[in-house]
């Protein structure tokens, strides 16, 4: 059996006992959540997690295949791995086994097996940053997306389980909670609830922590934008909106099967900026989607200048196996290269001009991580990253003067 239909068996993970294990994770926060759950289970089985493959008796590679470049990187890595027991999990292990078997001869671990083992015997991970997987899969049918085949239809965790995980992570030292899923704003639509209600509940959990809400598809966020934007104005929620829009052209969005329009995206942005002035806005754009004309590309540039995002993740379109878009005529790479250069230049110019307004301001910063002795990372309420000198403790809120802009984070000094 292979692919998404494989029913989770628990013996594969149970066979990894008393070993030194190296886990390499590719991809998104959700995948990082899977790796942390696996690590928690393995530690219960007497394993030690090591930070270098050379030290390991067993290696786990948690794969991602969202774009062609990542697939190539994963396969190159698998080919290079030395011959110790090798386990492969993640999205690629679910939908591209043959490609993996062309590179190596691993034992496959279905992601569902990790969740089942963790639910049975995993200790909640400790540390300043906690990950909560609120839902798996999505309601979308985006024509370019292979992730939905790997992760399947939407399955939301119930509110009680999520609150239990948040409480346990906070007890174990978490000061930043990252809510993650393939589409976080789809959460609850399969269990008679919605994200706005969940955020209100999480905001009621005692403790010093802040919540980063993961990526939300405008199609599922639009109907609940009022309640979610309202919940975002609460103290416990970082004023950080990750809204992957992919294109600014309604005709491209239609061909992608995204389920929203440019004006709906702008309405959502306006709504969140009304509830949370100064909110950080991150987005994702695909350039060079099959058939994208110059006019359609200009629509994306126009959206960018009207959205004024703080950060943009630009991806050159790459056909993913088994997706409808892969049947379309692909655009020559030189056009994609040029369009991504234009988008990145525009995005960085916007980020720099927005950041300029923050330099020399004094702001409260929640310390979230010790980078090394004498240096720590913190987050403003807008989730801006700030590197601060000093022996600082995660969970403390310190007044910091932002002294230097490094485009996607700031350097700061204690006031
Ligand atoms: S919402 Fe679309 S892009 Fe996101 S995981 Fe689902 S199908 Fe893929």
What does this structure look like?
The protein is α/β, with parallel strands linked by helices and 415 residues long. It folds into three domains: 13-114, Response regulator (Rossmann fold, 3-Layer(aba) Sandwich), CATH 3.40.50; 127-356, pyruvate-formate lyase- activating enzyme (Alpha-Beta Horseshoe), CATH 3.80.30; 362-414, OB fold (Dihydrolipoamide Acetyltransferase, E2P). It is built from 15 helices and 18 strands. It has a five-stranded parallel sheet with strand order 2-1-3-4-5, with helices on both faces. The chain has a five-stranded mixed barrel with strand order 14-15-16-18-17. The radius of gyration is 21 Å and the shape is globular. The structure holds iron/sulfur cluster (SF4). Iron/sulfur cluster (SF4) binds at residues 138, 140, 142, 145, 147-148, 182-183, 217.
């Amino acid at each position: 059996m292979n692919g998404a239909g494989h029913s989770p068996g628990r013996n594969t993970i149970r066979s990894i006992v008393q070993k030194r294990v190296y886990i390499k994770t590719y991809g998104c926060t959700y995948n990082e959540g899977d790796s942390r759950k696996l690590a928690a289970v393995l530690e219960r089985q007497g394993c030690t997690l090591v930070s270098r493959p050379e030290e390991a008796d067993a290696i786990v590679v948690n794969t991602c295949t969202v774009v062609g470049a990542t697939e190539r990187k994963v396969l190159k890595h698998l080919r290079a791995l030395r011959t110790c027991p090798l386990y492969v999990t993640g999205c690629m292990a679910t939908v591209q086994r043959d490609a993996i078997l062309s590179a190596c001869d691993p034992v496959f671990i279905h992601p569902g097996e990790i969740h089942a083992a963790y639910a049975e015997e995993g200790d909640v991970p400790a540390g300043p940053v906690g990950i909560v997987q609120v839902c798996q899969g999505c309601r979308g049918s985006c024509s370019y997306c292979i992730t939905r085949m790997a992760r399947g239809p939407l399955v939301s965790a119930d509110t009680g389980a999520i609150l239990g995980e948040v409480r346990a992570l906070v007890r174990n030292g978490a000061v930043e909670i990252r809510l993650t899923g393939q589409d976080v704003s789809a959460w609850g639509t399969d269990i008679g609830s919605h994200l706005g209600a969940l955020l209100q509940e999480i905001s009621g959990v005692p403790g010093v922590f802040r919540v980063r809400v993961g990526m939300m598809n405008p199609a599922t966020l639009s109907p609940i934008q009022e309640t979610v934007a309202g919940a975002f104005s609460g103290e416990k929620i970082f004023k950080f909106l990750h809204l992957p829009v992919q294109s600014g052209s309604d005709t491209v969005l239609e061909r992608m099967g995204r389920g929203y329009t440019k004006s709906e995206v702008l309405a959502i942005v306006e709504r969140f900026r009304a509830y949370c002035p100064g909110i950080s806005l991150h987005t994702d754009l695909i350039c060079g989607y099959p058939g994208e004309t110059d006019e359609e590309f200009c629509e994306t540039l126009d959206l960018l200048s009207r959205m004024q995002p703080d950060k943009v993740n630009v991806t050159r379109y790459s056909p993913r196996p088994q997706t409808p878009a892969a049947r379309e005529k692909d655009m020559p790479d030189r056009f994609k290269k040029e369009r991504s250069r234009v988008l990145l230049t525009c995005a960085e110019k916007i980020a720099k001009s927005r950041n300029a307004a923050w330099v020399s301001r004094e702001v409260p910063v929640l310390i979230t991580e010790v980078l090394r002795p004498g240096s720590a990372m913190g987050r403003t309420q807008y989730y801006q990253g700030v590197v601060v000198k000093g022996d600082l403790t995660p969970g403390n809120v310190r007044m910091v003067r932002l002294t230097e802009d490094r485009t996607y984070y700031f350097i700061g000094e204690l006031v």
